[in-house]
Design goal:
heterodimer; A: alpha/beta; Rossmann fold; 3 domains; 6-stranded parallel β-sheet; 23 helices; 18 strands; globular; B: alpha+beta; Alpha-Beta Plaits; 5-stranded antiparallel β-sheet; 4-stranded antiparallel β-sheet; 9 strands
Chain lengths: 573, 169
């Protein structure tokens, strides 16, 4: 037998990944993971060569967020693994299913401070749902199977498998994997029937109910069930940043996003609700503001697949541990058992109150006809021209909030963003991953100049690998959200927020990276430049939109403040 | 308020690190910790004494760890709790008899002796060890080492059956 024809741990790894249905791996090679890159040449799995492991990780996240499938990222030991820490933590915070495969120095060298050695499983302990180190190539099929199972089930999340180089080189055989080794892992799927009945009692009696919907609804694929239940219960729906698209924004019951930069009506409806039904949401501080002042008169029904979320921030009158889809199905049938779903309580007073907030406190901005361009206006034009038929990826900051506010989401998995960790630089690689997952869909990243400069090299990946994403860079010449806080809360003393408008030259930079570069700085040129961007489908496009550097994001609840005090304009602060 | 938790885990590398990582990450305090094998292959038992105002959350976070199989809180009334202590007490020839007599009330065994000190081994409930210290401490503690607490759920619902006739057990 020649060296190359031996079946080793590396072959077993690739075969195992194929067995899990993996079609794409995002990765960067290196010394310790070298053996795995050889059988990759003969595998049907496509490898997308990222320019940085962080980018590869966010690509896997974008892929997973846009589809619900497990994203896969591969990297080498040491710096390859440490560069993955940000995407792993990001995936942990946003419950995104990814599996990271990392090379490790040979077993005999572990603990010796070998070249490119890092204690990867130790580092990953803090930022994954679970992590493994393979010590025997015979275990690889089961480890990979377990890793995919853990990543995708229960509350999804990142799982890391670290494989020393000698294990990758070890001669082995492949065996059909089995799940027999997880005695401590049994996620609860179905809600308790007694709790379901109690929840329906409470919801039916409620005068001012609100469905507070989080990313769990998207993970569970429960949008249809949510729609049916919301209509049958006749309860308004707020969708958190992670849940945008879980419920159609153009529905009569949709109130939009609540929280720090949420829509006034969504935030206030929660505050004044008497029954708050949380479905797959976690009472994040960006939603609750001061938790002691959050929805003070509401009884809480908390539905979550992760028992640890229930009661973590706010005690629940009715806790229901279960998968959002399963619980919503059961809630609807419990409701049907009581009455005809069409015969729902009118709640006229509640909806009148909501309608009055909608008309008195809409989202607003002013677009001067001669500029500067406002991000909000550009997003509204892009929405109008595309008809909203696009997957939107965002970075983190003002532009992300405006994208969430002004894009009308209608379908789940059309919004790819970094919620919990707030990772600047997420948009470009995440859009690349989303486009790989959904090649027939229009994928547009709405990004800021600060974010773009953190991970822009992945556009070289996109150009090289023929991944025609559209990247809109809102250039306000700095870190807009930080500048907003310094302006509002540090007496206008601006510190380290100015990136300037001079460098880089975005269209030139785009061209240099193999993309089409476009630029717009006048409101009247917006529509034609959007048309031009949309007409390019053979290459990635970067469109620089020069926007107002002074614009601030409102509404705003100052950090830690009560959600009863929503600031609508700068003058109110 | 201290709570005793008994945690059954898979006997796999890194399990203890995962638990202590979770504790430090979430800001929970471990007062004492004891790890050892159980009668079942592949299972270890960790007994934790914790200072945690948010015990429910702590239990849920423990359960969330993939290698954790079972988490049980031991109510003091229903728990058999034991600690072991090795303690070196200053004892001149003139006080040796007195020290030994007092220690024997606690079923403490002499395991080492020198011209100026006696070293005892004493085992029992946390209260038993506390009382021992109250009585022997005044002679002068030179060194002390204490195991983590171990605990098992009591089967009988009656008053505790003493393990031996020792004081305070």
């Amino acid at each position: 037998m020649t060296e190359a024809s031996k079946f080793t741990g590396s072959h077993s790894l690739l075969r195992s990944l194929e067995h899990e249905g993996v079609e794409i791996i995002f990765g960067v090679p290196g010394g310790a993971i070298l053996p795995a890159y050889d059988p990759l040449l003969d595998s049907p799995i496509r490898h997308v060569l990222a320019r940085h492991e962080q980018g590869a990780g966010h690509m896997a996240e974008g892929y997973a967020q846009a589809t619900g499938l497990v994203g896969v990222v591969m990297a080498t030991s040491g710096p390859g693994a440490t560069n993955l820490i940000t995407p792993l933590q990001n995936a942990l915070m946003d419950s995104t299913p990814i599996v990271a495969i990392t090379g490790q120095v040979a077993t005999s060298a572990i603990g010796s401070d070998a070249f490119q050695e890092a204690y990867t499983t130790g580092l990953a302990m803090h930022c994954t749902k679970h992590s493994y180190m393979a010590t025997d190539a015979d275990d690889i099929p089961n480890l990979i199977h377990e890793a995919f199972h853990l990543a995708a089930t229960g509350r999804p999340g990142p799982v890391l498998v670290d494989i020393p180089k000698d294990v990758l080189n070890q001669v082995t055989t492949w065996r059909e994997p089995h799940l027999h080794n997880l005695p401590g892992y049994k996620p609860t799927v179905s809600g308790h029937p007694m709790q379901i009945r109690a929840a329906i009692e409470l919801i039916e009696r409620a005068e001012r109910p609100v469905l507070y919907v989080g990313g769990g609804v998207i993970k569970a694929g429960a949008s249809d069930e949510l729609l049916a239940f919301a209509e049958a219960a006749n309860a308004p729906v707020v969708t958190t940043l992670m849940a945008r698209g879980a419920f159609p924004d153009d529905h009569r019951l949709a109130l939009g996003m609540p929280g720090m930069h949420g829509v006034y009506t969504a935030t206030t409806a929660i505050q004044q609700s008497d029954v708050l039904v949380s479905v797959g949401a976690r009472f994040d501080d960006r939603v609750t503001g001061d938790p002691d002042a959050f929805a003070p008169g509401a009884k809480i029904i908390h539905i979550d697949v992760d028992p640890a979320e229930i009661g973590k921030v706010r005690a629940a009158e009715i806790p229901i541990v279960g998968d959002a889809r399963s619980v919503l199905v059961d809630l609807l049938s419990a409701l049907r058992a009581r009455r005809d779903p069409a015969d729902h309580p009118a709640r006229d007073e509640w909806f009148a109150r909501i309608d009055s907030w909608k008309s008195r406190f809409p989202l607003s901005y002013e677009q001067p006809p001669d500029g500067p361009i406002k991000v909000q206006h550009f997003i509204e034009r892009l929405y109008a021209i595309t008809g909203g038929d696009a997957v939107i990826a965002a970075g983190v900051g003002q532009h992300q909030m405006w994208a969430s506010q002004f894009w009308g989401f209608r379908t789940p998995r059309s919004w790819v963003n970094s919620g919990g960790l707030g990772t600047m630089g997420f948009a470009v690689p995440a859009a690349v991953g989303a486009k790989m997952a959904r090649p027939d869909d229009l994928v547009i990243a709405l990004d800021g100049d600060g974010c773009f400069q953190m991970t822009m090299q992945e556009l070289i990946t996109a150009a090289t690998e023929d991944i025609p994403v559209k990247i809109v860079v809102f250039n306000n010449g700095g870190y807009g959200m930080v500048k907003q806080w310094q302006t509002l809360f540090y007496g206008g003393r601006l510190s380290a927020v100015d990136l300037g408008f001079t460098y880089p030259d975005y269209p030139k930079l785009a061209e240099a990276m193999g993309c089409v570069g476009l630029k717009v700085d006048h409101p009247s040129d917006i529509d034609p430049v959007i048309e031009k961007m949309l007409s390019v489908n053979d290459r990635p496009v970067v469109l620089e939109v020069v926007v107002d550097g002074e614009e601030m994001c409102f509404p705003m609840v100052p950090a830690g403040g009560s959600n009863d005090r929503i600031v609508m304009t700068r003058e109110e602060l | 308020m201290q709570h005793t938790l008994t945690v059954i885990v898979e006997d796999k590398p890194g399990v203890l690190a995962r638990i202590s990582a979770m504790f430090s990450n979430r800001g929970f305090n471990i007062h004492s910790l004891a790890v050892g094998p159980t009668h079942q292959d592949g299972r270890s038992r960790i007994t934790l004494v914790v200072d945690a105002p948010e015990l429910e959350q702590l239990k849920k976070q423990l359960n969330k760890l993939v290698n954790v199989i079972k988490v049980q809180e031991m109510e003091p009334a229903e728990a058999l709790e034991r600690e072991v202590m090795i303690i070196r007490i200053s004892a001149q020839p003139s006080t040796r008899g007195e020290v030994r007599d007092t220690a024997s009330l606690f079923d403490a065994r002499v395991i080492d002796i020198s011209s100026s000190a006696m070293t005892f081994e004493v085992a029992g409930t946390p209260q038993h060890l506390k009382t021992f210290l109250e009585h022997l401490g005044p002679y002068g503690v030179i060194d002390l080492v204490k195991s983590g607490r171990i605990a098992m759920k009591r089967e009988s619902e009656l008053t505790p059956a003493p393990v031996s006739a020792g004081v305070g057990k």
